[in-house]
Amino acid sequence: MSLSAKLLLDGENVVEETRTHVKVLVVPFLFGLAVMAVAGFTYGVIGDGGGSWARIAVVVVALVLFTITTVIPFLRWYLWTYTLTNLRIVEQRGILTRTGRIIPLMRVNDVNYEKQLIDRILRCGTLVIHDASQQEGLRLHDVPRIEEFHRSVSTLVFDNHPSHQEVPRGESS
To answer: Name one Pfam family in it (predicted).
Structure first.
């Protein structure tokens, strides 16, 4: 789910948009496989002699567990986006209730990233953005291609920062 065009400001355009790295779906996928395997085995053991209510109960329990362990984490991943525009950084998340945080690039003081060993292998990491507010820095977790995203953010921050704007000749700052 991308940033809606109605949320863009005048003269604003999307530079990059991403969501967390797909690695966050490995464990939910494995849980989903385990739920389906156990449900299939249980359904087979019950067989025709176990009665239809027992088989229906196995299917219902399996569907509920599959939804909780696999479908909901997938939706959470799919609907959690990071959008970099030429004016700001927007984080949006949530399945039923959407929340987000917006940081204007001209207020950003510091941009850095963190990578663990597995992040280095998968080419992802956590981008940490500090702005001029009293709030804790914005942490964008598991950003794919972290170096490229960091470079894009840093370039745009530099271009949008008031102290780096060109001063017309004959004027002093």
So the answer is: bPH_2
- State pLDDT tens for residues 89-110: 888 888 888 888 888 888 888 8
- Sequence-separated (6 or more) residues with CB below 8 Å from residue 93: 76, 79, 80, 81, 99, 100
Confidence of residue 28 (pLDDT cuts 50, 70, 90): very high
Q: Calculate the alpha carbon distances from 90 to 3, 128, 142, 158 in Å.
A: 8, 13, 15, 18
Helices (H) and strands (E) in the chain, counts: 5, 7
Quote the CA–CA distance of 79 and 63 in Å, as a whole number.
Answer: 22
Tell how far CA 146 is from the center of its chain: 13
